[in-house]
Amino acid sequence: MNETPVQRYHPQLRGAINRTRRIYLPHTPPYLLIRVLEFLYKGDYTVSSATILSAIDSDLLRDNTAVTRAPNTNIANPVDRDRLAIRYAACFHAKVYAQAEYFQIEGLQVLAAGRFSTALWWLRQDEGGFAAAMAEIYDHRAWNYVRLHQRAVPEILTVRQSTARALGSEAGF
Fold first, then answer.
1. Looking at residue 20, what DSSP letter applies?
2. In terms of residue numbers, what domain contains 55?
3. I need a surface site. Which of 5, 30, 63, 145 has the fewest CB within 10 A?
């Protein structure tokens, strides 16, 4: 029997997939499963502003802190909608990372962690977006992001220190 790419990357699914049985993944939102499957077939995953805004609208991607209110995606201006998507991109990549860890897909973990770091760098002067990203990876109700913490904490410190230096030099300190 020929193995599908999904079975090859995730050995626990060997023999579990056939045409008559369904696989239920109750803890995997469809918008994340699509990214996992896309990675398994293409070696990459895509994300768009529309995807992130749809996840926010569905309450699948949200700020878990009291720092800011739940985001309103019902914005007429496309520039503002894109800014909101950028603000929550780090949260989106953290969730993709969690699914990669859940399914034990090392390549997707590396890719999602890198994209999380890049998105976090773009949030260096956006306190609300930075708080949302931190809430996602440190919330006790969220996935245990231990390996993402190990990678992200040094980068977080670097981002915050470089921002502080830049602000200090602008202020003449």
1. S
2. 29-171
3. 30
Give the integer Cα–Cα distance in Å for 10 and 150. Answer: 24
In a domain, 126, yes or no: yes
Q: How far is CA 51 from the centre of its chain?
A: 12
Separation between Cα atoms, residue 40 and residue 105, nearest integer Å:
9
pLDDT category at 67 given cuts 50, 70, 90 is very low
CA distance 2 to 91: 36
CA distance 170 to 172: 5
DSSP structure class, residue 13: G
Task: Please report, as a single letter, which amino acid is at residue 65.
Answer: T
Q: Report pTM.
A: 0.71
Distance of CA 29 to the CA centre of its chain: 13
Share of the chain above pLDDT 70, in %: 64
Whether residue 1 is contained in a domain is answered as no
- The number of folded domains in the chain is 1
Question: What is the arithmetic mean of pLDDT over 18-35?
Answer: 79
